[in-house]
Amino acid sequence: MQNKGLIKLFAVLFGLVSAYQLSFTFFANKVEKSAKEYAKSNVTDNNGRELARFERRYLDSVANKEVVNLGIAKFTYDDIRDKEMNLGLDLKGGINAILQVSVKDILIGLSNNSQNKVFKDALAKADEAQKDSQDNYLDLFYDSFVEISNGSVKLSDPSIFGATKSLRDKINFNKTNEQVKSTLQEEINSSINTAFEVLRSRIDKFGVVQPNIQRIGTSGRIQVELPGAKDIERVQKLLQSTAELQFWEVFTNAEVIPFFQSANIKAIELLKGETEEAVEKVQDTTKSEDSIDDLLGDAKDSTKVENQKSLFTYLSPTFQQVSPTLGYAKLQDTAKVNSLLGNKEIRALLPKNLRYAKFLWDYKSFTPKRTEQNKDQELTPIIALYAVKSNRNDVAPIEGDVIADAKQDFHPTKANMPVVNMQMNGVGTKLWAKMTSENAGKFVAVVLDDYVYTAPSVNEQIPTGNTQISGGSMTINEAKDIATVLKAGKLPAPARMIEAEVVGPSLGQESINASIWSFGLAILLVLVWMILYYGKAGAYANIALLVNILFIFGILASFNSVLTLPGIAGIILTIGMSVDANVIIFERIKEGLNGGKGLGVSVDEGFSIKGALSAIIDANITTLLTGIILYAFGTGPIKGFALTLMIGIATSLFTAVFITRLLIDRSVAKGTDLTFNTNISKNWFKNISVEFLKKRKLAYIVSGTLIVIGLASMLTLGLKQGVDFKGGRSYVVRFDKPMKANEVANNLKEVFGTAPEVKTYGADNQLKITTVFKIDDKGKEVDEQVQSALYKGLQPYLEGVSYENFKPGFEKVNNGGGIMSYMKVDPTIADDIKQAALWAVLGSLIVVFLYILLRFRKMAFSIGAVVAVFHDVLVVLGVFSIFYKIMPFDMEIGQSFIAAILTVVGYSLNDTVVIFDRIREYANNSNSLTANLVDKALSSTLGRTINTSLTTLLVMLAIFFFGGDSIKGFMFALIVGVVVGTYSSLFVATPIMFDVAKRKKKE
After folding, report:
1. DSSP H or E segment with residue 768
2. Taking a C-beta distance cutoff of 8 angstroms, is the pair 227, 210 a contact?
3. pLDDT digits (tens, 9 = 90+) for 168-208
């Protein structure tokens, strides 16, 4: 081998750089461990929120302090945390979300809320079409508009886009529909860019280490990844808040109660026949939060009576003491209250002075504390209702565009009470002085995104432009976030979360622990096997393997790549491929030695292109192509898997070929006797001669039977589609005792309307609950309502777990119950994900077909390889269809499954290409392929095929049994795929290739 010195230098330098980059992860983990210990020493009740607060306090205190001194360089904690390896959500916890900026709302805004019937009908039709279409919203709206208008009205009409303030200089009445559409597209792109910049500004101020935000094409979708975020509720509000600040005059309860009483009577009529067991409620709602649940709780005592449902079933009005608070409702009942108050018949009862009343909820719900008075009642989150004095155009007297600056501060007289101080510009100062003058002795509401943050009493005119938001229970973080969204700017349209994946830090830590165990065991099994099989040569391969692992992690750390659970699976799969390269080389060397050639000559031949290198390169390129397609079409964890797979292919090729060669050449130069086997393995797979092709008819029958059974199962039982393919919400909930899935499903049927899918997930005290409840509802509060309903349905099994602790995020201490992880996928994006997955599989097959055709120059080879791949995919799908109801782990068809399928494709092709390469070598480019020649090639590679498959299986079984619950289905697909792929390489791909070649020859 030439240039040994250069290869040694490169390997040493690369190894040192990798170790240097990984050292930052070690030091960062050390500091973060100290932070956890500090938090635990300061929190006595193991409250997850408090632990996070003290942990953050410790890390903030050392942020700019020197924590590492290498002599030649010194680093603060801020320095090393920017250089440490990024962990994905499944290992670190956090949130990964896709936000959809509403193009519909942008169009409505650009039209100045046009009431033109054709315009509104076109929007409605576009909404309906979007459910089943991949086209962008503007195209759907345009097609609908052209169809409905039928030339009667143009988009440039003054009642639509022709006379609006924002488009006056760009659109006139003479513009054609196509020209207006082009202008609208430019405005939409500009609005989405603005939304992206506003969200990025907010995220930068949020304080999460290594956040990621990126646009997804031109779809108006923005992906946000915040690994390590624990306060999930806070993140969701920050991302979805449009920052529309308004100041309104407020109606008091005294002004609104008469209307409520009339509305209650009308509601009884509307809800006729709907009854419930209710408690007799005391109507004094001026009590404190500690006792307010007396009014809303369902007491289990003799006062229960059968009541006809009404408005007051869901809303408890405030009758005493003049207040801006009209009443309180349970969080899960807010949708019902909104529905009743928005009903046309009830709105018709509004007196003249309340005609334009706008009912708004408080920005924050609260759960009352347990007291002697409510000890037997169900404590659920409740929220206050207000009414502001809106008008015909629903335009606030003062809006957020007058805010010049905003910052979090503390109340001047109430110690430690966080507030948001705002400074208005000149216009705002005059308007604020006028409003406070006219409302002295009354109430004024500060509203952000249609939620009331505070409704203080105005004592006197405020002539300066200074004002303050100071909600009674506002936290410091909430005050900071309000200031952030006000300063970062207003989103041009609401950004709705159409996909979200949340993993709690407790589950993340468990995944890390499981990954370390499985990864360590997998490596140990491989190391032991290689020494057992190849002796000293196996030890050299092991050294190369360990160097390969160092290189992979070093590259990931150097480029700030994200390591996920599927990424770890990709690394372990790479280990199998790295071993495969050494196995191919060692088997060729053994062939040379068995043929009477010297050790030096055999080693040269083994590492040559004519020897093993050709097969290794072909096999790695096919897998690399699979990785590229996965990376192009995948998202989140799938990209992580593809990235580690591609990096691993490059590093394993270098280490297996060059590092192993350096070690073997050094041993040969010293005169060491290398046999490439041990006393145990020396007679394994020796002098094998199997007539594979004679068994091909039997193999066709076996394969055909398996495929027919699988297809029959798919047509009858179907496949269990994951949330990411069908839409819905999926929660992993942990309890403090073993649970019965059927019993829980029946309990949840009461709160969800239909029974959700409930299945044991890993341990018997952990359930995965999947529901489509309210998945088509689009309000920002819907996620909270569904979560609240879930908590209510599970309360009988959550003894002592408050709603706050039940929510995802923050550490679940002492095995406390609650949501460990959560996933939501809107049906509209689920269709897109499914389509992308289909293209990924088809694209992979096409690319591989073309590569093999180009490499082997014969159609028969390509057809054989692709038929074998189709065979493997169908068998794996069949297995998942037959067993998904039986297996005690998830066997869902989703993005991870598609990644597994493509990996199986890559592995199967890897195996097939090695065999085809040997057949081509034996044929010596001859056009004649005999059965004897093919059987001889298959027999000669059988040792390598079984050795590689066994090694890969050992690795995968280690991850399957000792890895995290979330990866079991993924690994099961790979295990089935490896077994089937090994079989198909021998009994499907090669026989099909032989039969096709034979037919071609006859023709």
Report:
1. strand 763-771
2. yes
3. 777 777 788 888 888 888 888 877 777 777 777 667 666 56
Angle in degrees, 0-180, between the axes of helices 565-594 and 968-984, rounded to the nearest 10 = 30
Q: Are the C-beta atoms of residues 112 and 162 closer than 8 Å to each other?
A: no
**Integer Cα distance of 636 and 966 in angstroms:** 15
Length, in residues, of the chain: 1003
- CA separation for the pair 68, 24 (Å, rounded): 9
C-alpha to C-alpha distance for 197 and 489, rounded to whole angstroms = 9
Q: What dihedral angle (degrees, nearest 10) is formed by the CA atoms of 822, 827, 831, 836?
A: -30
CA–CA dist 893, 643 (Å, integer): 22
Q: Sign (positive/negative) of CA torsion 810, 100, 199, 404?
A: negative
Which pLDDT value is given to residue 283?
A: 36
DSSP-H helix ranges across 396-504: 426-438, 476-488
The closest alpha carbon to 735, from 810, 804, 791, belongs to: 791
**Which residues pair with residue 249 across a beta bridge?**
444
3-state secondary structure of 168: coil
> How far does Cα 512 stand from its chain's mean position?
18
Residue 210 per-residue DSSP state: S
Q: How far apart are CA 616 and CA 588, in angstroms?
A: 12
pLDDT in tens, 447-460: 877 888 878 777 77
Contacts of 869 (CB under 8 A, 6+ apart): 845, 848, 905, 908, 909
Task: Please give the Cα distance from 746 to 786 (Å, whole number).
Answer: 17
Residue 808, C-beta contacts closer than 8 angstroms, at least 6 positions apart: 232, 502, 503, 504, 818, 819, 820, 821, 822
Q: Which helix (H) or strand (E) holds 763?
A: strand 763-771
Residue 783 · residue 479 · CB < 8 Å: no
Q: Which two tokens stand for residue 473?
A: 């229970």
Cα 776–Cα 781–Cα 783 angle in degrees, nearest 5: 60
Q: Residue 821: how many CA atoms within 13 Å on its side-chain side?
A: 25
Q: Which two tokens stand for residue 853?
A: 């055709």
Determine the angle formed by the axes of helices 177-206 and 103-110, rounding to 10 degrees.
Answer: 120
| CA end-to-end span of the chain | 46
Rounded CA gap, 481 and 469, in Å? 12
* H-run or E-run covering 316: strand 315-317
Q: Are 980 and 875 in contact (CB under 8 A)?
A: yes
Q: Is this prediction's pTM over 0.90?
A: no
Q: Is the dihedral of CA 975, 977, 981, 984 positive or negative?
A: positive
Q: What proportions of the chain, in percent to the nearest 5, are helix, strand and coil?
A: 60, 15, 30
- CA dist 70 to 19, 23, 24, 801, 968, Å? 14, 11, 11, 47, 41
For 20-45, write each residue's pLDDT tens digit: 888 888 888 888 888 888 888 887 76
Highest mean pLDDT, choosing among 377-391, 673-687, 825-839: 377-391
Q: Tell me the sheet residues that pair with 770.
A: 730, 757
The residue type at 79: D
What element of type H or E holds 820? strand 818-825
Q: For residue 645, give the nearest of 561, 752, 753, 758 by alpha carbon.
A: 561
Q: How far apart are the C-alpha atoms of 911 and 981, rounded to whole Å?
A: 8
Two structure tokens written together for 819: 């949501």
Tokens 């309890």 sit on residue = 735
Compute the distance between CA of residue 661 and CA of residue 667 in angstroms, rounded to an integer: 10
Q: Please give, one letter per residue, the 3-state secondary structure of 504-557.
A: CHHHHHHHHHHHHHHHHHHHHHHHHHHHHHHCHHHHHHHHHHHHHHHHHHHHHH
Residue 513, both tokens:
């622990």
CA distance 256 to 803: 31
Packing angle, helices 117-130 and 137-149, rounded to 10: 130
For the chain, count helices (H), then strands (E).
34, 25
